[in-house]
Amino acid sequence: MGLATFRGGVHPYEGKDLSKDRPVKTLLPQGEMVYPLSQHIGAPAKPVVKKGDHVLVGQILGEAGGFVSANVISSVSGTVKAVEPRLTVSGNMVNSVIVENDNLYEGVQGLGDKRDASKLSKDEIRAIIKDAGIVGMGGAGFPTHVKLTPKDDSKIDYVIVNGAECEPYLTSDYRMMLEEPERIVGGLKVILKLFPNAKGVIGIEDNKPDAIASMTKAAEKEANIQVVPLKTKYPQGGERTLIYAVTGRKINSTMLPADVGCVVNNVDTVISIYMAVCETTPCIRKIITVTGDAIKEPQNFKVPTGICYRELVEAAGGFKEEPEKVISGGPMMGQALFTLDVPVMKASSAVLALTKDQVAELEPSACIRCGRCASVCPGHIVPQKIMEAAERRDLDLFVKYDGMECCECGCCSFICPARRPLTQAFKSMRLAVRAAAQAKKAKA
Questions:
Q1: Which of 198, 321, 367, 410 is 20 to 30 A from residue 114's alpha carbon, by CA?
Q2: 4 with 231: CB under 8 angstroms?
Q3: HSE-up (13 A, CA, CB side) for residue 119
């Protein structure tokens, strides 16, 4: 029997050798801290502090603005300088709390206290996770307490930890599986308390044999937890593809993982759950990979949320030469940056600096109808056809051709010999379809 996997996908240059052998270093900030109040899917948090207020590590700066929202919490102690719009990695100005770090790191009462999760009820665990402001740390940013509150707990039979880390260059989850495997298993056990009929599965690509060994050893006494090796292929770590690889179950754009009895969480999200529930520590730190051939000393850092990207690059030795492209995240799904003066947020994963912008070097040309895009699409749609709808800005045709099933993984753009900007067009169209649906709903 072969490794667990899915049909489609691509094999881009991995680039992980640059940073995979670099243990995580703690990096403390030097400048002011910026905490955007919208760093999650859902309603922005509402500020509960004002200019001049003194704040502590672990203090709430912004309260969740609804059920699908998340608290924003200070990672330093200091004084609030302002509550004002600041630039984020998305390129948007987002209302943010600005804190002048006093470098004392004084915490709220009880911060870091040990807690026995076995003595907590389901409601207490969910409340702790919500108060801690935990969201999907792998990039999605969906509030975790919402994901862990399905309609019927008893119908969840798989809790899957996403340890694939299939995005090229990124090694932060890999390092966590080597350095903190007990916290990952501990966090998974906390989640399993919420779902009495579920078993835990930790999925890891087979290009990380030492991580597979590390997690297998950490889970060896847990009869209800299994480590599943996955075939190394992008996007093996996508939620839909991971669920199919592990369980054989399929979901589409109209479904949630819970609809097929699954809950999926990223490695760092699971660690954050353990830290919140068992160590009384909210979501105030991130593990970030700083890498690329333009970086002098590629590194994995543990940093407080709110620190500036520029400080990360400086701590990695700066640039060997001026990069042509800097990306927040990886090359397949990350966002290009035009400035490093943006803050690390909960879903930040990496700073990737490349000496050559290979995308910009090649001009797109007409489709040659080779079919490669369809052969690698993990959603089993036909990118060539939905691109025709995108070029016409025909929303109805885009939906008819299953454009909403696109997961924006970038496989089609990667494989296209004509270098057509397929993923960018599909992302724009998906946003337009959702906006049109909301406008229609508002009129009704």
A1: 198
A2: yes
A3: 4
The helix or strand, by DSSP H or E, that contains position 42, with its residue range, turns out to be none
What is the pLDDT, as a whole number, of residue 60? 98
- In 3D space, the residue among 176, 169, 99 whose CA is nearest the CA of residue 328 turns out to be 169
> Distances from the Cα of 190 to the Cαs of 120, 127, 200, 217, 280, in angstroms?
10, 13, 11, 19, 14
> Using an 8 Å Cβ cutoff, are 290 and 316 in contact?
yes
Report the pLDDT value the prediction gives residue 360, as an integer from 0 to 100. 62
CA distance linking residue 237 with residue 250, whole number of Å: 15
Give the whole-angstrom CA distance, residue 319 versus residue 292: 10
172 phi and psi, to 5 degrees? -65, -45
77 in Cβ contact with 106 (< 8 Å): yes
Which ranges constitute the DSSP H helices of 263-366?
267-279, 309-315, 358-361
- CA-wise closest residue to 372 among 363, 385, 383, 387: 383
The pLDDT value given to residue 1: 47
Name the residue among 180, 158, 161, 319 with its Cα closest to residue 247. 158
Total-model pTM: 0.95
Give the tokens for residue 397.
């045709």
Among candidates 138, 178, 141, 179, which has minimal Cα distance to 162? 138
- Residue-wise pLDDT for 251-309, tens only, equals 998 999 999 999 999 999 999 999 999 999 999 999 999 999 999 999 999 999 999 99
Beta carbons of 377 and 8 less than 8 angstroms apart:
yes
End-to-end CA distance of the chain: 53
Is there a contact between 73 and 37 (Cβ–Cβ < 8 Å)?
A: no
Residues of the chain with pLDDT under 50: 1
H helix and E strand count, the chain: 14, 17
Q: Are 190 and 277 in contact (CB under 8 A)?
A: yes
Determine contact, residues 272/147, Cβ cutoff 8 Å: no
Half-sphere exposure at residue 266, Cβ-oriented, CA atoms within 13 angstroms: 29
CA geometry: angle 418, 423, 428, nearest 5 deg: 125
Residues contacting 442, CB < 8 A, separation 6+:
none
Task: Say what the pLDDT of residue 441 is.
Answer: 86
